[in-house]
Fold:
Amino acid sequence: MNNYRRPNTQIPSAADAGNNLTHRGFKITTRKLPILKAEPIERMTAALGIAPPEMIFGDNSTSIEYAAGAWVINFNTFDALNQVDKTGASMLQVAHSKEWQSTRQEKHQGITEVVKPFDWSYTTDYKGSLSSTRRDFEATTTSIPLELLKRPDPIIFFDEVMLYEDEMADNGITMLSCKIRVMPERLLLLCRFFMRLDNVLFRIRDTRVYVDFGTGEVIREYIAKEEGYESVRLKLTSGRDDVLAQMRDPNKLAEILPVVDKSLERLVPKPEQSP
Structure:
């Protein structure tokens, strides 16, 4: 039995407490610590059942909390990796790994190390870890109000937290990070998984959490996008900007990759007022 414990909202020491802001009943906390050392990595590997990425920030996290822990959504490295396919049975993944190998003129040790019986791209559809004594998310048709987010409101809190990254044996990049910005009336958190497998595939998995401080409404949006490498390259060549630079820009790629999956959920963690 392993003794690895994932990060949670109970920070072990003041030095590791990170940055936080309490605003209109919601507490926002981000924690950024160094890459894990050998011993914690071994414990995490045993707990996950798969080898972790090259750069793993296992103590990092981002959380939104309401009413002193009555409702919390937390984004952390362990739970994100725990949703990676550990069977290697996905036909889609197997097809891509074979295609990747076929693009290489030489088969070197790096490919052998990366293509293992689990999803070596570390793709995750992680939407955050929810802890609630009140209610859970429910499906909705209410979208995140983008027009409100475009307003030039002052930003009272901003942070970006890396959870993990891997260069896939120098054949691309796969990474998961969180970014959060808080304005006086609302906040937006983006947890983004991005993968570029050279000559094969681009993939983005975005989870957005929107909070309206006035109503207490929380909307969670999940969008999955992906497309073949060559198709993306052809789209980018129609413009004047540097194609290779755009291929390394997740924000640019998010604008052009087609959606393959999407969900919307909402909840109001605040107690409903009587009429």
In short: The chain is about 20% helix and 35% strand. The two ends are 52 Å apart (CA to CA).
